[in-house]
Amino acid sequence: MAAKLKTQVSSAFKMHGLTLRSDANKYLVDVLLPITEVEREDWLDRLIDIIQKQPLSTSLIQRDVCEAAVQECNQEQEEDSDNILCVLDTFSTPRFSYVQERKKFIPNSILGLPAPALHGTAMDKASLFLDRYTVLHQRTLRHDLFTPPILGSLPEEGSRKFQLKPLEYLKGTTATVKDVIVLGMLTQLKEGQWHLEDPTGSVQLDLSQASFHVGLFAENCFVLAEGWYEDGVFHVEALGFPPSEPAKTTRAYFGNVNFFGGPSSTCCKSSVKLQQTEQDNTDAMLVFIADLWLDSTKVMEKLRELFCGFCDSPPVAFILCGHFLSCPAGQGHLKAMKEGFRALGDMLAEFPALTSNSKFIFVPGPQDAGHPLILPRPAIPNCVTEELRNKVPGAIFTSNPCRVQYCTQHIVVLREDIVTKMCRHCLRFPSDGDIPTHFAKTLVSQGHLCPLPLAVCPVYWAYDSGLRLYPLPDLLVCADKFDAFTRQSADCTITNPGSFPRTDFSFKVYYPATGEVQDSKIP
Prior knowledge:
The protein is α/β, with parallel strands linked by helices and 523 residues long. The chain has 15 helices and 22 strands. A 6-stranded mixed sheet has the order 3-16-17-18-20-19, with helices on one face. The longest helix is centred in the N-terminal third of the chain and has 20 residues, at 122-141.
């Protein structure tokens, strides 16, 4: 029986172009032997599928690869509720680099790149912009507008193909170059003088005749510039952002690589069990509140009303964003925060239905004391939150930004006045005044949470990949003091709950089963 199974396992792997080492084959036989023949085929297919999704360096499969696949298969079978809701710290998100030769993203650990340090090197700063460019460049080249036509095929009526040119192509010619498109980063190498920069060089821009597409064009944003080049100056006729890409298109190209992070080595979108759980729980919801001022009597009164309202149908989680005090950081700020969290813990203790069924996720704001104003921002110090955590077992204090995975839903939460900053530093303010639409288009096209100069919005250089929006999440929550809004772009929902005290106590409720964001308010 074992010999027959050994041949069956070996043949199944060979049909997929894989070869098992003898010890790996023996291990799989021992695993599959106790299982019935009906289940055995299903298990074998799933094991091969998991192994094929791994970044293999050779077709010869070692035992440790099989052990990892069996372990992952077992995890999918376990009824573990912890995998339904996962809160992921930005500092521990997976780090990938795009390798042009292999046209795929490879984990930095496999490439042998060093682990990130909080205070990075000059190389980290250079890699920060180069990695952003590389991600957008490969994404743009795969878009229908930029893919070369198939040899021998007739062009479709009305269709037009474009070709990206590097800046070195322009700088290497003395003639006038017309109808050219380049991808580069907007920058001011001289005060008041705009340039376009890519890994091959930089050129001065003439924007006097440029027409702007939808978006907030700020310094350090990557743009597609169309125009003509003469005498060292690129005369821009049209300026737009790189085309966005829905997450399902990204996953169709790169497979089920887990870019988001979490307990599984593959993307949670491929889990049938999680998909079923998500669809079955049609009433499951996530509540988002920003600017939860714990030192404000009025805010605490309204918060109590909110908790009373949700007692009969507890949400999966309350995502509570700072600032947690109404006054800016100063002397006695940490003490006031500690007292505020103690009062919140006492209040939550009155609602056992919520504390036993819901998670409480706390995301720090820019004015909350404890850490410098640099993204990503670590969680609020334990010494401040200890009393609350003792009273509320479901309290989770995480980084800003953070990632939340509910079943197959990918959610990114950022607490930063990023809309305000982008409006203040954009090259040209939109004439139609529809800021939410322009803002949503900007973040989705840039594939990054903070496409602004480092002097305006500082970032830890080595952890910039934690701010990357690639593939796009299902929901992006940008908690900002700007007016509340909800927009859709490239199958991604971008929402701002608005400031809880400043918007007459409004907040957002998200239903993962339907993808609906509901505007809510305490009367």
